[in-house]
From TrEMBL, chain A:
Signal peptide as annotated in the record: none
CDD domains from the UniProt entry: TM_PBP2
Subcellular location: Cell membrane
InterPro entries named among the record's database cross-references: ABC_transporter_permease (IPR051393), MetI-like (IPR000515), MetI-like_sf (IPR035906)
Annotated membrane topology: Multi-pass membrane protein
Keywords per UniProt: Cell membrane, Membrane, Transmembrane, Transmembrane helix, Transport
GO biological process: transmembrane transport
Residue ranges of domain ABC transmembrane type-1 in the record: 294-522
GO CC terms of this entry: plasma membrane
Name of the protein described by the UniProt record: Unannotated protein
Transmembrane portions of the chain: 28-49, 61-82, 94-114, 126-144, 164-182, 203-230, 301-323, 335-355, 393-415, 450-472, 502-521
Gene3D superfamilies, sorted: MetI-like (1.10.3720.10)
TrEMBL record, chain B:
Protein name, entry field: Unannotated protein
Location of this chain's protein in the cell: Cell membrane
Keyword hit for Transmembrane helix: yes
Main location: membrane
Organism classification: unclassified sequences, metagenomes, ecological metagenomes
TrEMBL record, chain C:
Protein name, UniProt field: Unannotated protein
SMART domains listed in its UniProt record: AAA
Alphabetic keyword roster: ATP-binding, Nucleotide-binding, Transport
Organism: freshwater metagenome
NCBIfam families: PRK11650.1
InterPro entries linked: AAA+_ATPase, ABC_transporter-like_ATP-bd, ABC_transporter-like_CS, ABC_transpr_MalK-like, ABC_transpr_MalK/UgpC-like, Mo/tungstate-bd_C_term_dom, NA-bd_OB-fold, OB_MalK-like
Entry's Gene Ontology molecular function annotations: ABC-type transporter activity; ATP binding; ATP hydrolysis activity
Record GO biological process: carbohydrate transport
Ranges where the ABC transporter domain occurs: 4-235
Pfam families: ABC_tran (PF00005), OB_MalK (PF17912)
GO cellular component terms given for this protein: ATP-binding cassette (ABC) transporter complex, substrate-binding subunit-containing
Amino acid sequence: MIGIVAGVVSMLLASRTGDDELPVAIKLFMQVFSIVVTVAHLVAAYGVFRGIRRARTVSLITNYLLFVVAAAALLHQLGAFTAIGKFGTGLNKAFLPFLVIVVGLLWVLVAGQLRAKNPLAPGPNGLRKAGWGLAALAGVWFVIASDPSGMLSTIADRITQPVTIGTLLVAVGAALATRFMWQRRVAVHFGTTAAEEQTLSGLAFLSPNLIGFMFFFAGPLLFSLVVSFFEWKTTGTGRSFVGIDNYVRALSLDVSSADAANAGNEVLKPGYQVLMHMDWFGQNWVLGARDVEFWLSLRNITIFLVLAVPASVLPALVLSSILASRLPGMRVFRAIYFVPSVAGVIGVAIIWGQLFQSTVGWINYLILRTGEILPFVDPPAEGHPWLSSNSTALLSMVVVFAWMNFGFNTVLYLAGHQSIPKELYEAADIDGANVWQVFRKITVPQLRNTTFYVLITTSILALQLFDIVWILSTPEPGGPNNATTTPVLALYEEAFQGNDQGYASALAWVLFLIIFGFTFAQFRQQKDGATSGGVS
Amino acid sequence: MSVKRKGPKATAIRVLTYVVLVAVAAIVIFPFVVAVSTSFKRPTDIFTYPPSLVPKQDVTVPADQVGTDGDPVPVFTFPGRDDRPGEWALVDADAPLAEFRPLDDLERIIVLDAAAGERTGATITIDGEEEDVFLVDDGGTQVEAYRSRLTSGGLFVSVDDPDTSVLDLVNFATPSKEFGPRFENFSEVLAERDPETNGKGVGRSLTNTVLVTILVVLGQIITSILGGYAFARVQFRGRSTVFLMYLGSVMIPFVVLIIPLFQLMLQLNWRDNLVALIIPFTFTAYGTFLMRQFFLGIPAEIEEAALLDGASRSTILWKVMVPLARPAIATLATFGFLYAWNSFFWPLVIINSGNPDNAVLSLTLSTLGGRSSTDTNLVFAGAILAMTPPILVFLFAQRYFVENSASSGLK
Amino acid sequence: MAAVTFTNITKRYKDGPKAVDDLNLQIADGEFMVLVGPSGCGKSTALRMIAGLEEISDGTLAIGERVVNDVPPGDRDIAMVFQNYALYPHMTVRQNIGFALEVAKVKKDEINRRVDDAAEMLGLTEYLDRLPKALSGGQRQRVAMGRAIVRSPQVFLMDEPLSNLDAKLRVQMRSDIIQLQARLGTTMVYVTHDQVEAMTMGHRVAVMRKGVLQQVAPPQELYLRPANLFVAAFIGSPAMNLVTADVTVEGDDVFCSFGGHRLRISPKALDRYPGLRGRHGTKVILGIRPEHFAMEEDLELPADQVLTFRCELAEAMGAEVHIHAVIDVAPPTVDGAPTTAEDDPEALVTGTKVIARVDGIHTVAMGQDVRLAVKTHLTHFFDPTSGEPLR
């Protein structure tokens, strides 16, 4: 009976839709949600009253979702979310006590580990207590130092607003209703089966994950698709449905013949600009596109892909074969090679920027010195401007990319090596194969699957190149002269510097299709060519 | 390749192998070495040619040692000038001096004090200009010369013999350098943004990044444990469908989401706030898979035993499964840390570039070290600060994984 | 303490086959019930249904008076010992045993007291602070039992707990378990595939085959009066010898002929198997347990109840000698149960293998002819098609 009352109460509260402080989309969502919840509650109340089994499930789900939404709204009202961000200031002031807390907790953690191995030793237990004590003390210091007074006053302000109180009541009501319905005796009363109970419990566990997934991934994904069919201004309110125009604009190409070798836009259709000049069979042709930058980025990324992927994969293959042997020190090398992958793109790019510096950079210097030692290497008189020259800018980035990623790929390959049966090598040994033959005829074919995986992951990374370009390209991102523009960069500029997010969304989906298509093609190639090897 | 062979050929191969490995390792390590050295250099030191790996500072002597007062005086040498051996302290960099050219050898230059020389009264025409002839002291002898230039230069006092001094243009002398790391690079780069103190505000970004990373890692661990458990052990309707959805989500590159996520952040008023870097990333499909995989590997009977013992699913998860899942959680934490600490694209999109208070390390570094960068030494100090924690975390964690895989004791 | 009642219990898998088929079984309060049968017969499934770890497709399961079909395992007040012990690897023995009490929020001193009691009962006191990985198999098994005991449940469930132990330990643990159950008086449901365990441990034994209950009775009953061919062949070690024979009824005498042998059946057998009388001219399956043989000189029997065999193999076991012989008749087949000797059905010999147990004092050589008397008053008779006993 109480369940019915609670359900009805929540239902009434849920009918309030007067939130006028929230922006449009959220308001729409809340209104729709409130209607759905109200209807569901009516159904549930009716079912509960009549003792129908499914009613409990409906009631549970409805109340739970209501609780989640209400709690989220409540937190939003209280500014709890933005407060997390503002907490950065507090942390900044109180960083030292924070570090002490961390040390304390580390002690606890280490003690926990030691205890797991040997539950009775007094040392770890003492360490653990000391750790907690330290953390507690530092915690007090932390609170004092971080000065939460600003945050508290904001909360105090907002907590008294009627909307906030209303949301609070709804949240509490829904929570109580959920809790009540969840109880064992209610389940028995409704004759819930064990299977149903499991389903509910499974969904409950999954819910934080799933809700996050829906709200921050699936939702936005669909929204992105929808937006790509609109002309959607970032600022201002220009929003009009344009169908597939965005896609058409991105992909349109036009070819037309010209008289002169460097004809301009006039020979192309209106709206098109010159992309490149070609010379076929003695006749001048001009290739134009509506979005020249995008097509240039496609050209660039293709070149990049063709260069960077082998550069990241082949060394990994060779090195992993060496590292897979049981020679001493292999683990050390493996760890060293992996470090560039974890150091962080920005720092790495900055360092390489310095190395590539034309006058005082190490690369040019080393080339010079090598030229002195090895007679056939003929370095240019002055340092080559790696990053500001059209021809070598992209190449430089290939080097950085390969440097960063080969270690990671090596580790992937190493894992693949684990599954090559030793017997194959032993058989080859007996057959008298030399190192190179073993590598070619046994190692590489056996690593087929790993190679496939490595190629795919590296390609996907390469196709999304952005960070390195952003830092290293001069004089502006994508320079010089669009020699290093990448699709993601073009997308970013279109979305946040240009003003049309609809078009940018379309670009994003085009890029996605390219990546997907590429992966798919690789997949097919792998499948077609796969034969199971000679190991039973 | 696990058979150990003997013999000179095998040894040669082994040596060659190590050479190759070390060479590659050198290629990997070298940029970091450059970074570390640059982060300790003085600004002027960075753009020297040939580039050097060692941070240097100027050699100085205390002022009173060379007969003056004030700050320590920089020391120079005159390589190639045997008449000026040893070290010379630049006591005055703005000493007015004059260049005299002797009439019998117009190519030679005698550098003297600007007030030196006596006018003889005679004149001489050089390049159509009339110049006064002076009598100047040229190493003891008096010669006739005209004054070709008035400028300012350096007054050098010999360190060994403070009575001896020399006047010359400063750039004819080579500054003496010694090993001298400049630790202030780090304190400056960490200090709050202030054009006066040259603080760069990396300290604030550092704490912001710490905050974001910790919360993201915690969030990911919790949601992945819950989700992974649900997928692994709880039978519920539609489980495979949802799982397939998660599987598919891995294939979607992040780039497709930035625009709608951006809009969402605008709606929620989370733009330009660290929250936008945290909450959307507290769930992760990879993490969920990882935990699911691990939970699947724990024998079902342990859970059944716990169920029979009357434990609720929640109790089972936190009291039984999670303690056994330490290696997986550590892996998850490590990857989460690396991801959150190093992320750049999304922060770039969502945090206002004009707002230094809410920036994370990657953003601050990119502004500092980008196209319009000055103070390269500080930028590199910042870069070292940004790169050290993830490298340390990685090195620490990978040892931990290896250790722990053996000691699970599951039976 | 409570009774466990299966009423029309069926468990169906998604693709159709039934793991348990219409099981009706009543386990009395305080009884030691053994579920036995070959792999896949449904015994473990039935046990797990009691535990609540398997879903019941049809029928009702009651513990005591309570129908528990939809009651979660933790609420059924039962305890289970798993085949692999399922100890919590990261907890000490004390924590393992006390876990259920901890979950039930029992006070800490009470937990310690009960854990200490259980540990003492099982001889685990000195291991209380060790981790499972520091224990031997037998010790782990006892910890698993301790975990079950300490909760004082209404029913104990054991899923092949001894199968991972070596033979000597197994024998010892068997008697420990029997004594434990006798002492505690709790209802025990015990699953095993080993019929020796089944026979020695249970008050009653339920034989299952392909999800169907074949017979449930005290061990002796199963031995003396098997309900069908399968039970007859399953119980007893070495297994009962099954021979297809032709029946001749001459007045009051019944003769069975097989593979060149002719055996007169004692009238006492006909009291137990009256259906035999009407089987003149038909085939029956003769069930002679190895222990129903004796050397001619050890047993005074008329000559028409003595058979001559050529000894293919003689195993001297000490107290007895196992004589292996072959009868020149195709062996009958019984799915899933050994027919003669624990041998494979793909034996290259096309005859029926027979094993006889005789007193160990005799020395029998391979290839030697032996004259064996058959205690035909104890012989069993089955219909060759249905496997039903000819009662």
